[in-house]
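Hi U.,

Before I forget, here's the chain from the pilot set. I'm dumping it here mostly so it's searchable later in email.
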Amino acid sequence: SSGINAEYGGTGRGGKSIYGETFADEIHPGLKHTGAGIISMANSGPDTNGSQFFLTLGPTSHLDGKHAIFGRVCNGIGILNRLGSVQTDGDDRPTDPIRIIDTMLL
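Structure:
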């Protein structure tokens, strides 16, 4: 599903992060949303990062310079593809709960 993102963070409605209500962007011009598995901060404009993040399901160059990239999926891209294909409702929210049980930092 090129150009579509899977967004996560708490209830899916945003909220306070460990840095407070919002925090400044840390955008690196050399990092781009080039394909599936890029992990970036969700925001509602400059310097409005909170607790939500998203993983790209395909290239999304329109997000470059607007969302701080802080990681990349190294293993398990098939799981991300499965997440991107779950049934959603009229608000684009999954019809069944999805939970991230465990992650690993490399």
